[in-house]
Amino acid sequence: MDKKGLSLKESVWSQLDRKAGAIIELTIRQLRHRLSTWVVLGVGVLIMLLLLAFYVDSVRDGFESIDNDGDSVDEDEDGYPLGQEIKYGHSDFDSSQYPGVGKYIPVGEIDGNDLLRNTSGNYSWFGQGILDPVWINMNYTGNEWDPIINWQDEINNCPEGEAFTDWALEYGSACIYGNGKYVFAGEFQASGSVEVPMGYFLAWGIYTDSFYVEPDPISMYIDEDDINWDGILLQSSQGFDDDGDCTRENWSEDSDWIYVDDSGEVFDNDKNGNGIICDVQWILDGEGNVIEINKDSNVDEDPIDEKFMGESSHRTFIIGVGKMAFVILLGLFLPLFLSLGLIRDETENGTLHYLLSKPIHRGEFIIYRLLGYLTVTGTYILFLSLFMGLFSSLLGPGENIIRLSDMPIWLGIGFATILVLCAYGALFNTLALISPKYGIYVCISIGVWEFVMGILTIANPNWTISAISINHWALQIIDSIVLIAWPDTLQLQQMSLAFNLETGLDIFWKPPAHTLGTSNPLVSIFISIIMLSLFTVSMLGIGQSIFKNREIM
Amino acid sequence: MNEIGNKSPSVMLDHVSKWYGEVIGLNDISLAIEGGVTGILGPNGAGKSTLFKILMGRLKPSQGAVRLFGIDPWKSTTPYRRIGYVSESERMYDWMTSLDFISTLARLHGMSREEAVERSKHVLNFVGLGDVYYKEIGKYSKGMRQRVKIAHALVHNPDLIILDEPLHGCDPIARTSIMNVIRELGLQGKTVLVSSHILEEIERITEQIVILNNGKLLAIGNLHAIRDLLDQHPHRILINCENPRDLAGLFIASEPVYGVRFPDKGQLEIHTNNLSAAHDALPSLIVKSNQKITSIENPDDNLDSLIGYLIGGINHG
User: Where are the domains of chain B?
Assistant: First the structure.
């Protein structure tokens, strides 16, 4: 008795272990001998390979720089891109307005009622009157006003014997008035004396010499204003105007051209109203999370794509694959194919009695069967997530060959998926036990529900209804792990919203919902694990009590 | 636990009944079985499998108590440590080798892997599959599969072995080999329950029988004693010979024979109410007739007649 007593604890445990080992091993070998196992596992691998191909083809491709704010265009085809025209205060819709073009400086004017109606000099003129020229610039191109008189083609004799005041000229034309004088209406450059009849208007001034400005290469306006944020927020005022289209360093002071900024609103170099010109204001909540980004016009609008868009797209890809392909698709289909028949098939095949005539409790038996199924599916998911992790981190942006920061995310995706496999496995197995015949239809209906709730959770995890699903909690785990492994994801998401950059990050990732008001992702992970475990355990319990009391023919 | 178990009979049923809805599977059965081979006889649907399933904790008795080594098998799996069960189901994991199959199941008794393989080889040798246990079960003949099932039930050296129709569908060679195995187990002092619907099968294995019919316990005891009772009742002997009428004349003069019939050409049917006496007289009469006899059959020497007789007996009683 003493001898037995001493080794009792050890022998009970080792016997349990051996029984568990034998059933788990048998289950694995059975699954290995089923075609459907290989089909569903193969389809999973295929989906992942397709996703990787998509990643290489479009996501990775998208890291090539693109002009997010659209200022690399040259609408008026004057050789100067919009960004350069903005800096100099010129319109990109007028080919005569471009950096370095001559500027008009007004000198004087005679309006309809002035008493003094004569003047002379070498000016650019605009209005109507009678010119006695010394020299006329036939190639005049200044266009402060329009239209410019074409002295070569449209000169005819004026109506004879009548005073100029008795008839009118069309704008942009002139006629010979006699004695070498001309009557004009329009803009031109000439030296001489001008007489303006009563009731007519004339203005004159000087055009500065135009000077040559080297057109900037278009590439300069593609990645020109990187988002200035080092990852640590010490001050709320963060960004500044790298490319000078907010400060407008070359702005011509007398330009009265009003134009819109990159967000389509009227240009304002202190749009966020914090008293600092051309900066970006980052507004934080109590926990130090960025909740809003307000920027002045044209600041931080075109980040370096490799750095920002590349990073965001890469993260979006991983989160999207983790949520859609792993949790929602594989998480549902693996149990649907592999867990439903764990007990049911043994009953149908008439092989159950071999197992049940052994000294094993039926409840124990369910657990070992599920462990066998989990060994197969869990190992598969783990390998698949590590495989995806390895390849995407090799292909992903960044200076290192392998992005180590991705690895916790992939492990988290694997972990969340395995919890889903546990929960569905226990649920489906129990349903198949309750009704071997109709259980499958209930499982499929639940699958549809779970799919919809999964999509709802991705769209908005705060909708309460989506919490009535297994997917919801698993997706929460991914959201939370993202925040732990990549703490700046929240910022990236806010940046894409603030700077109108379509990265997709805000579609696939939302801050975790169940943090009990702490914003701490660990709280959310903890709660989600508890929810999924509770569900799994209670399903197991129901399954066990049904199986225990079932008569087996 | 073991000590207590040892004091109780291996199998004990106390007024056990089982209904499937309106249908009665077992009707008020009380039994205690301990040691040796016991044949459970009964036609198809008599309740043999129901009885075994109740013993194996698959079914819950609607009424009454079942104890295996003193323990209720519906509530506890403890008795299965000492029980080997061969079900009527033909299905197995055909993709496994028999060694694999049996050693996997042996591990469910808490054996280590090595122990399980060693024990499995031992029992496979015992049932005569020692040279094929690395073959997949799918490639086995029916008799071999039946023996794999028996081996699986023996792997943990049980004290009680329950075999549900173990000879069903086997060829004569397998049948003989399985019967030898069962007899050997009985000789080893184990309690063996073996069911069959064929009297002759059980007769070759054991004398101790239980007869079930329509869920009721019809008879329990020694087969020979029951047969002796049967011998005193009307019985037929069917003889195929060249000239039945000549032979009939000889028989009708013999004491135990009270009637003859000629059911077919070349056939003689003798009616007797003392089967053993008739059989004793047979050889000398045949020699006397100087005829060539092709076969002698006892059409009433089967379970149906036995049951018919027993029911009649009960009715008369």
Answer: 2-224, 235-299
